[in-house]
Design a protein that fits this description.
The protein is α+β, with helices and mostly antiparallel strands. Helices cover 25% and strands 29% of the residues. The longest helix is centred in the first third of the chain and has 21 residues. The termini are far apart.
């Protein structure tokens, strides 16, 4: 262990729940989630969530639900808050403690590096089947499917998401960036 590591605090969920404001915790290191998302970020998040909620309702997928940011505890010292999650199992705690079926991160200048690298790796390691990255600046949505424990990008004008309980949906993203 290096000398620096002896002086850097290592936080866990027990510490995290007492903090004010929005935070994520990755390997015991706190990351502030400020400033608040921009209006454009919030609009894109709303449009994406609506696209998924609408698709889930139309297909009658009663066990799958779209959530705005909630705590996803990967480990006692790693808690993240994806912008949108699709969860197809009951959440029995104050936080999600199992991999969601799908995660969406909306890039912002302050989170792009973390979303494209750290969170990409975390979600891949945890077995999150679908990971979407919405890029507001480029008006694109990258969809990654976990195949043989590795994310592979999906291409084409639309993507069908095969969720648990024979729930297959193809959300309409055509107005997300309007």
């Amino acid at each position: 262990m290096s000398v620096a590591n002896k002086f850097i605090p290592h936080y866990t969920y027990d510490d995290y729940v007492h903090w004010e404001g929005k935070w994520e915790l990755i390997d015991g290191f706190p990351i502030a989630m400020s400033p608040a998302p921009t209006p454009e970020h919030q609009k894109v998040a709303s449009e994406l969530r609506y696209a998924f909620v609408d698709s889930l309702k139309k297909k009658g997928c009663k066990n799958c639900h779209a959530y705005d940011p909630i705590d996803y505890m990967i480990a006692k010292d790693t808690i993240v808050q994806p912008d949108i999650l699709i969860v197809c199992e009951p959440i029995k705690k104050k936080y999600l403690d199992f991999p969601p079926a799908l995660v969406i991160e909306i890039l912002s200048p302050s989170t792009a590096l973390k979303d494209r690298n750290t969170k990409f790796e975390l979600y891949q390691q945890q077995g999150v089947k679908y990971f979407l990255i919405a890029d507001i600046d480029n008006k694109t949505i990258e969809t990654f499917l976990l195949t043989d424990a590795v994310y592979k990008i999906q291409t084409g004008p639309s993507v069908t998401f095969h969720l648990p309980d024979d729930c297959s949906i193809t959300p309409d993203f055509s107005t997300v960036f309007d």
